[in-house]
Write a structure and sequence with these properties.
The complex is a heterodimer of chains A (116) and B (116).
Chain A: E1 5-7, E2 10-13, E3 19-24, E4 31-37, E5 44-50, E6 53-57, E7 65-68, E8 75-79, E9 88-95, E10 106-107, E11 111-115
Parallel strand pairs in A: 2-11
Antiparallel strand pairs in A: 1-3, 3-8, 4-5, 4-9, 5-6, 7-8, 9-10, 9-11
Chain B: E1 3-5, E2 10-14, E3 19-21, E4 24-26, E5 32-39, E6 46-52, E7 59-61, E8 64-69, E9 74-79, E10 88-96, E11 105-106, E12 110-115
Parallel strand pairs in B: 2-12
Antiparallel strand pairs in B: 1-4, 3-9, 5-6, 5-10, 7-8, 8-9, 10-11, 10-12
Protein backbone atom coordinates (compact mmCIF):
# COMPACT_ATOMS: atom_id res chain seq x y z
CA UNK A 1 0.00 0.00 0.00
CA UNK A 2 1.90 3.05 -1.24
CA UNK A 3 1.38 6.34 0.52
CA UNK A 4 0.29 9.73 -0.78
CA UNK A 5 2.72 11.10 -3.36
CA UNK A 6 3.18 14.69 -4.48
CA UNK A 7 5.04 16.23 -7.38
CA UNK A 8 7.15 18.20 -7.68
CA UNK A 9 8.75 18.16 -4.24
CA UNK A 10 10.20 21.62 -4.73
CA UNK A 11 9.23 24.48 -7.02
CA UNK A 12 10.91 27.83 -7.39
CA UNK A 13 9.08 30.35 -9.49
CA UNK A 14 9.11 34.04 -10.19
CA UNK A 15 6.33 36.28 -8.98
CA UNK A 16 3.52 36.42 -11.48
CA UNK A 17 4.07 32.96 -12.94
CA UNK A 18 1.54 30.12 -12.74
CA UNK A 19 2.38 26.85 -11.00
CA UNK A 20 0.63 23.50 -10.80
CA UNK A 21 1.12 20.76 -8.25
CA UNK A 22 -0.03 17.17 -8.42
CA UNK A 23 -1.18 14.81 -5.69
CA UNK A 24 -1.73 11.06 -6.01
CA UNK A 25 -3.67 9.77 -3.02
CA UNK A 26 -3.60 6.29 -1.54
CA UNK A 27 -5.32 4.24 -4.22
CA UNK A 28 -8.51 3.21 -2.43
CA UNK A 29 -9.03 6.56 -0.69
CA UNK A 30 -12.01 8.50 -2.02
CA UNK A 31 -11.38 11.69 -0.05
CA UNK A 32 -8.59 14.13 -0.84
CA UNK A 33 -7.52 17.32 0.93
CA UNK A 34 -5.15 20.19 0.27
CA UNK A 35 -3.48 22.13 3.09
CA UNK A 36 -0.89 24.86 3.21
CA UNK A 37 1.83 25.05 5.86
CA UNK A 38 4.10 28.00 6.51
CA UNK A 39 7.20 27.92 8.66
CA UNK A 40 6.50 27.41 12.33
CA UNK A 41 2.77 26.89 11.83
CA UNK A 42 0.42 23.99 11.59
CA UNK A 43 -1.21 23.07 8.29
CA UNK A 44 -4.14 25.24 7.19
CA UNK A 45 -7.00 23.68 5.27
CA UNK A 46 -7.53 24.79 1.67
CA UNK A 47 -10.00 22.43 0.03
CA UNK A 48 -11.55 18.96 0.08
CA UNK A 49 -12.78 16.50 -2.57
CA UNK A 50 -14.97 13.48 -2.23
CA UNK A 51 -14.35 11.50 -5.38
CA UNK A 52 -14.38 14.17 -8.13
CA UNK A 53 -16.64 16.63 -6.30
CA UNK A 54 -15.06 19.61 -4.56
CA UNK A 55 -17.17 19.87 -1.42
CA UNK A 56 -15.34 22.33 0.77
CA UNK A 57 -13.23 25.41 0.14
CA UNK A 58 -11.51 27.59 2.68
CA UNK A 59 -11.58 31.36 2.59
CA UNK A 60 -7.82 31.03 2.18
CA UNK A 61 -8.44 29.74 -1.33
CA UNK A 62 -8.45 32.99 -3.27
CA UNK A 63 -9.56 33.35 -6.89
CA UNK A 64 -5.98 32.71 -7.97
CA UNK A 65 -6.15 29.17 -6.60
CA UNK A 66 -7.98 26.35 -8.32
CA UNK A 67 -8.06 22.66 -7.58
CA UNK A 68 -9.38 19.74 -9.60
CA UNK A 69 -9.80 16.04 -9.23
CA UNK A 70 -11.15 15.13 -12.66
CA UNK A 71 -11.55 11.37 -12.35
CA UNK A 72 -11.69 11.04 -8.62
CA UNK A 73 -8.11 9.83 -8.47
CA UNK A 74 -5.21 12.30 -8.63
CA UNK A 75 -5.68 15.99 -7.96
CA UNK A 76 -4.01 19.17 -9.15
CA UNK A 77 -3.67 22.50 -7.39
CA UNK A 78 -2.93 25.50 -9.58
CA UNK A 79 -1.86 28.92 -8.39
CA UNK A 80 -2.10 31.69 -10.95
CA UNK A 81 -0.09 34.92 -10.83
CA UNK A 82 1.94 33.76 -7.87
CA UNK A 83 2.82 36.20 -5.11
CA UNK A 84 5.61 36.03 -2.55
CA UNK A 85 3.01 35.34 0.13
CA UNK A 86 2.20 32.08 -1.63
CA UNK A 87 5.58 30.68 -0.58
CA UNK A 88 4.76 27.71 1.64
CA UNK A 89 4.62 23.94 1.80
CA UNK A 90 1.53 22.60 0.05
CA UNK A 91 0.36 19.35 1.59
CA UNK A 92 -2.02 16.80 0.20
CA UNK A 93 -3.82 14.21 2.32
CA UNK A 94 -6.26 11.43 1.64
CA UNK A 95 -8.68 9.38 3.67
CA UNK A 96 -11.15 6.56 3.37
CA UNK A 97 -14.74 6.76 4.52
CA UNK A 98 -14.62 3.77 6.84
CA UNK A 99 -16.46 3.33 10.11
CA UNK A 100 -13.91 3.34 12.89
CA UNK A 101 -11.36 5.28 10.86
CA UNK A 102 -13.44 8.36 10.24
CA UNK A 103 -11.36 11.46 9.78
CA UNK A 104 -7.96 9.80 9.70
CA UNK A 105 -6.06 11.72 7.05
CA UNK A 106 -2.79 10.48 5.63
CA UNK A 107 -0.41 13.11 4.35
CA UNK A 108 2.03 13.25 1.47
CA UNK A 109 5.55 14.72 1.68
CA UNK A 110 4.40 18.09 0.36
CA UNK A 111 5.50 20.47 -2.39
CA UNK A 112 7.62 23.35 -1.19
CA UNK A 113 6.92 26.47 -3.23
CA UNK A 114 9.29 29.42 -3.23
CA UNK A 115 8.19 32.56 -5.05
CA UNK A 116 11.03 34.96 -5.78
CA UNK B 1 -15.22 28.68 15.23
CA UNK B 2 -12.67 26.08 16.11
CA UNK B 3 -9.29 26.61 17.67
CA UNK B 4 -6.42 24.44 18.86
CA UNK B 5 -3.77 25.85 21.16
CA UNK B 6 -0.41 24.27 21.78
CA UNK B 7 1.19 26.68 24.20
CA UNK B 8 4.55 24.92 24.30
CA UNK B 9 6.52 26.07 21.29
CA UNK B 10 9.59 23.99 22.01
CA UNK B 11 10.56 21.39 24.60
CA UNK B 12 14.00 19.93 25.12
CA UNK B 13 14.55 16.80 27.20
CA UNK B 14 17.30 14.29 27.74
CA UNK B 15 16.80 10.76 26.52
CA UNK B 16 14.76 8.52 28.84
CA UNK B 17 12.91 11.43 30.39
CA UNK B 18 9.13 11.49 30.22
CA UNK B 19 7.57 14.44 28.43
CA UNK B 20 4.00 15.72 28.11
CA UNK B 21 2.79 17.82 25.20
CA UNK B 22 -0.22 19.97 25.96
CA UNK B 23 -3.20 20.59 23.69
CA UNK B 24 -6.23 22.73 24.48
CA UNK B 25 -9.09 23.05 22.03
CA UNK B 26 -12.19 25.16 21.49
CA UNK B 27 -15.25 24.11 19.55
CA UNK B 28 -18.98 24.65 19.63
CA UNK B 29 -19.62 21.26 18.08
CA UNK B 30 -21.12 18.66 20.37
CA UNK B 31 -19.39 15.88 18.45
CA UNK B 32 -15.81 16.13 17.31
CA UNK B 33 -12.61 14.22 16.75
CA UNK B 34 -9.18 15.03 18.13
CA UNK B 35 -5.93 13.93 16.55
CA UNK B 36 -2.20 13.96 17.11
CA UNK B 37 0.26 14.01 14.24
CA UNK B 38 4.06 13.80 14.23
CA UNK B 39 6.18 15.72 11.72
CA UNK B 40 9.77 14.43 11.80
CA UNK B 41 12.64 16.35 10.19
CA UNK B 42 11.86 14.61 6.90
CA UNK B 43 8.68 16.69 6.83
CA UNK B 44 5.90 14.16 6.26
CA UNK B 45 3.05 14.31 8.77
CA UNK B 46 2.46 10.95 10.44
CA UNK B 47 -0.92 10.10 11.97
CA UNK B 48 -0.62 8.95 15.59
CA UNK B 49 -4.09 8.80 17.11
CA UNK B 50 -7.72 9.77 16.71
CA UNK B 51 -10.06 10.27 19.66
CA UNK B 52 -13.85 10.60 19.51
CA UNK B 53 -15.42 13.23 21.79
CA UNK B 54 -17.69 10.57 23.27
CA UNK B 55 -14.76 8.48 24.41
CA UNK B 56 -12.83 9.95 27.32
CA UNK B 57 -10.98 6.76 28.05
CA UNK B 58 -7.24 7.31 28.09
CA UNK B 59 -5.20 5.34 25.62
CA UNK B 60 -1.76 3.84 25.76
CA UNK B 61 0.25 2.60 22.83
CA UNK B 62 3.73 1.47 23.76
CA UNK B 63 5.60 4.50 25.09
CA UNK B 64 2.81 6.85 23.98
CA UNK B 65 -0.24 7.73 26.04
CA UNK B 66 -3.03 10.23 25.60
CA UNK B 67 -5.14 11.94 28.26
CA UNK B 68 -8.44 13.34 27.01
CA UNK B 69 -10.34 15.53 29.49
CA UNK B 70 -13.52 17.06 28.13
CA UNK B 71 -14.04 19.13 31.29
CA UNK B 72 -10.88 21.10 30.58
CA UNK B 73 -10.99 20.77 26.77
CA UNK B 74 -7.58 19.19 26.77
CA UNK B 75 -6.02 16.29 24.90
CA UNK B 76 -2.49 15.87 26.19
CA UNK B 77 0.14 13.52 24.83
CA UNK B 78 2.81 11.86 26.97
CA UNK B 79 5.92 10.11 25.73
CA UNK B 80 7.46 7.84 28.34
CA UNK B 81 11.21 7.15 28.31
CA UNK B 82 11.80 9.48 25.36
CA UNK B 83 14.24 8.52 22.62
CA UNK B 84 16.22 10.58 20.12
CA UNK B 85 13.94 9.27 17.36
CA UNK B 86 11.03 11.03 19.06
CA UNK B 87 12.52 14.37 18.04
CA UNK B 88 9.95 16.01 15.81
CA UNK B 89 7.22 18.62 15.70
CA UNK B 90 3.96 17.32 17.13
CA UNK B 91 0.61 18.73 16.09
CA UNK B 92 -2.73 18.43 17.77
CA UNK B 93 -5.77 18.77 15.50
CA UNK B 94 -9.54 18.99 15.76
CA UNK B 95 -12.39 18.16 13.43
CA UNK B 96 -15.88 19.27 14.30
CA UNK B 97 -18.61 16.89 13.19
CA UNK B 98 -21.84 18.81 13.67
CA UNK B 99 -21.84 20.55 10.29
CA UNK B 100 -20.32 17.72 8.28
CA UNK B 101 -17.12 19.59 7.54
CA UNK B 102 -14.04 17.50 6.83
CA UNK B 103 -11.30 20.04 7.47
CA UNK B 104 -8.85 19.54 10.29
CA UNK B 105 -7.92 22.54 12.41
CA UNK B 106 -4.33 22.24 13.57
CA UNK B 107 -2.47 23.83 16.44
CA UNK B 108 0.83 25.56 15.79
CA UNK B 109 2.82 22.56 16.95
CA UNK B 110 5.32 21.74 19.66
CA UNK B 111 8.89 21.04 18.65
CA UNK B 112 10.35 18.26 20.79
CA UNK B 113 14.10 17.81 20.94
CA UNK B 114 15.40 14.72 22.68
CA UNK B 115 19.08 14.99 23.49
CA UNK B 116 21.18 11.83 23.79
Amino acid sequence: DTGVSQNPRHKITKRGQNVTFRCDPISEHNRLYWYRQTLGQGPEFLTYFQNEAQLEKSRLLSDRFSAERPKGSFSTLEIQRTEQGDSAMYLCASSLATIGREGEQYFGPGTRLTVT
Amino acid sequence: AQKVTQAQTEISVVEKEDVTLDCVYETRDTTYYLFWYKQPPSGELVFLIRRNSFDEQNEISGRYSWNFQKSTSSFNFTITASQVVDSAVYFCALRGMDTGRRALTFGSGTRLQVQP
